[in-house]
Structure formats: structure tokens, C-alpha cells
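Note to self: the last two entries modelled the partners one at a time, which told us nothing about the interface. This time every component goes in together.
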Amino acid sequence: MTKPGMTDEMLMAFVDGELDEASAAAVSSAAAGDPELSRRIDSFKVSRRLAREAFGDLLSEPPPDRLINAIMAADVPAGNVVPLKRHPRFASRALLPLAASLLLAVGFGGGFWFADRTDASGGGLISSAGEIASLLADRPSGSATTVSLDGRDANFIALGSYRVTGGICRMFRVEYPQDAVRGLACDRGAGFSVDVAVSEGSGTTGFTPASDLAASTVDAYLDTLEAEGPLDKEEEGRILAPGKAR
Amino acid sequence: MTDDAKGRMVSMLPRLRAFALSLTRSRTEADDLVQAACERALHSLHTFREGSNFDAWLFRILRNLWIDGYRRARREVLVDMAEPEHDHAGEDGRHTMEARQTLRATMRAIDDLPEEQRSILILICVDGLSYRDAAEVLDIPIGTVMSRLARARQYLTATVSGNPEMPSGQMPRTGEAQ
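The predicted structure of the combined assembly is written out below.
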């Protein structure tokens, strides 16, 4: 016998995680001894799964280039500048098809390297990952260092440091003579390793400007890590110092 | 920042397209609507209140555009709403057939829903909005969101899975239970 007071809306909200803790516990307890109530709850779980699966193709396929181009090329009237809150709920899922639509992803050590489809530098990025991680261990943000990466002269710039869930991440940019790479390396207790790097390319993807895409992609990745704002010089100094304080 | 807004919009494109498709029921028109909504939003960034929910704000712009113009101007027969595009070659044949039948039945059931129920179903179950954010997008009370959503989901399950409480094919009611 189903308990009185358990409306469809309440059971649905239970499935959707919209009930407060006490109400959710009450529903859970009631359902434990009531097969009919359990069936009604399952029905709402099924409907959510069905709806999601029906749009699975659309959610997972890369969005058309024309939509991305339209957004990135749109003029924004002066003064229309507002700060956005971080932590979009779906940034992670949405980011990957986006990147795949514009960039060639090359698997690397559990992270992602993204290279211009027509740019051969992707392989070079991979072999330089260890050197980039080493540079980030002690170079303060804002500093530029001339280095040789993958046999090419490059200008390495640390752009900022961010606290994320479980560690610290640092954003960087590597400027080669013909192109540039923007990326993010994170230290979750075992030293810095590159999580994501995006080739800004040379405009050959048909997407302009590629540098905007690279910045947006790395920013979106930071969002998925629930990054806080950039650390100031003093905080960053403590992280980079020997015997770093986290 | 403008770049923040553009990056966020691009990352939202899959979800915006799903919501737009639920309104237009045409992939081509859905993409046109998404593009128009993003362009409108970028030109209206000054109306976005700092600290409020950017996603809900953008979904709302998209829906208002649909109501104001696209719905009025659209052609009458425009149903190409999501046939499965996967190539299931090599998978188990019976399983694949059942999956396709379920997907088609789901799409038909969603297509049958009144627009106000379909929008809520997609915003919450597909696009992942909270009840509160969906209420903000649609400018209706949260209780109305819940009653419409419950009816839409009961119809969906009944039609696809054969729930005895609502025989398959019975149209969902459009009235409200506040």
C-alpha cells in the first residue's frame, strides 16, 4: 500500500535530486517497504533516461562550425562586459564535442592535446610536455622564458595559477615562430603534468580567430575543475617555493 | 567578460540545440534559432544581471525569440526531429532493433507532447536545468513546472514502456495542477 502524501511531483523531485535531505530520506524510507512506490519512482527514472537518450546524438555530436563562427565573430557593443560565475554544470560534457569539431585531439597521458587539424605541431607538443611541466614548477606567472622545445626556439610564458579541486593548476602559453599553444598543467600532489593544450594554429582551420577558441577551451576546462580566481603573487610564491605550502 | 560569454555560449551549444529542436522540431530551424539567440544575447549582455544564472538567461532569450518570431513564421510541416544516426553495424542485431524501436517510440512520444510540457521535459531531463532555473526560463511558477513535468514523464513512460496507469496513445492533459 502506497503511503499517503507521496505525490507524483514529490517522487519525481526525489529522482531529480530536488528534495531537501529530510524529504528525500522520508521518500527513501517509505519506498523501502512499498513495491508500488518503488515502481512509481522507477518510472520517473526511466522517463529521464529515455528523454536523455533520445537527444544523445545531438548532445554528443560536434556543433556545426557555422554556429561557433557566428558566436566568435559577433560584435559586442562597447560596455557589454559582465563577469560570469564559474562552474557551469555541463561544461565538461559540452567541451569535448566542441573541441573535437575544431581541433584534432591526440591522446596523451590521461589528458588531452588539441592541435589544429592541418598543423603538424601536435606531435611536438606531446614530446615537450615534460619540459613544460618542469618550467611551470618554478616560473612565476607573467614571466617569459626563451627555451628550446622539440628542437624549436620558443617563448614560454606562465599566465596564471589557480586552486582547483584536489590541487593547483597553471595556465601557460608557448609561442613558436609560426604558431602558439595555450594549455593548462595541474599538480595534484605528484608534480605538474599537462592536462590540456590547444594549438592556436595559423588560421588554417577556417575558424577565426583561433586564439579566441584556444582561450575559451582552456577557460572552459578550468571551469570543469571548479577553479577559483587566479592566485596573487604572494600566494603563488608560496606554491612555487621549495617546500611549497598548499 | 565578452570572451567568457562567448566561450560559455559555445560550450552550451549542444544543450541549446536540443532545446531549440524541441521547439522547432526541425534541425535546420533549430540551428537558425540558436544562432539568432546567441547573437541577440551578445548584443544584450548589459541586461544580464551579475551573479544570476547565465544558462537560464540564454535559454530564456532563445525561447522568447521562438515565441516572438520563429514560431509565427515557421512552415507547417517540419518534422525531422532526431532519427537515430548511429551506425550499429556489427552490434547484436536484436538488441539494436529494440534500441531503435525504443528510440523512435520515445521521439514520437516527445513529439506528441504539448509544447509547454515538451519544453520543460527537455530543459530538465536533457539540458540538466534545475526546477528553479526552468521556471525562470519559462516564466512560470515552480509548482507549474513540476506538475507539467510529471505529466510529460508519465506519458513518456506509458507510451514507450506500457505503464498501465496511462495507456499508450492517451494524450497528456494540458491543464495545470498548482
